[in-house]
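Query form — protein Meteorin, glial cell differentiation regulator

QUESTION: What is the three-dimensional structure of this chain?
INPUT:
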Amino acid sequence: FLTLFSPSSSGLSQQKGSVEQISLHCSEGTLEWLYPKGALRLTLSPRLPSVAVGPGGGSSSGLITACVKPSEQFHGAQLYLEREGVLELLVGDRLESSPPPRVRCFSRLPGEKVALFLQATPHQDISKRIASFRYELRGDWTARLSLDSNNISSEDACRPCNNTEILMAVCTSDFVVRGNIQSVEEDENLKAAVIKVSATRVFRQKYALFTGNSRLTSKGDIRTLLQCGVRPGPGSFLFTGRVHFGEAWLGCAPRYKDFQRAYTVAKAAQQIPCELPID
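ANSWER: The structure tokens for Meteorin, glial cell differentiation regulator are given below.
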């Protein structure tokens, strides 16, 4: 759900030094602060399922992962993470010459008090200042899928899924697609690999990620961490994953024949979490 805070979150309606309290109940959205003055304190209160299962197969049990993506025109404020009363700078006030801002992610453990604190920076002319960012709050995936992956080991981020994780990913992913890898490119801004996929069957997709004019195939891009070393090769794969700020990010991706084998065995044992019309 996309939520736009404007113009009620204009600094023109705030007193200098005041702090306006806002609760973020939507799981994703955009916050736009016009003419920043004073500060905004944003509490994270998403309406998420009480138990959600991620690609790792485990329950979040109250764990929330949040990501923020500042706009390239983010000016006039600084964004902090407030955790147990301590502030950590996430996004500084950008200059015209600053490099593109990167996505920042963090997790809130059960019982932790976490908020985002957006503080205006002093400027003589605030008429051209807009502090805007997109955010996502999820209870069904962890930092394994995070773009802000400095503290994630390659072993954890790139580990192949086991059969249990694959079968669960088929049920819980934002997209489930059978296809082939056409090529792999590098996204320099995100430091990510972009997998160019030719999809022969789209089982499910949350958004129009895979499109095309052909009746038999459609095309789309899937991103993954650069350190995973994905290379183009022959064969058909089952691609699953999450949509992250409008882009597809890879979860489990077994060879299709391996998925078929695992699915058939689990179905015979009546242990499949959901049905999929496989060939």
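ADDITIONAL NOTE: The helical segments are 154-158, 163-172, 256-268.
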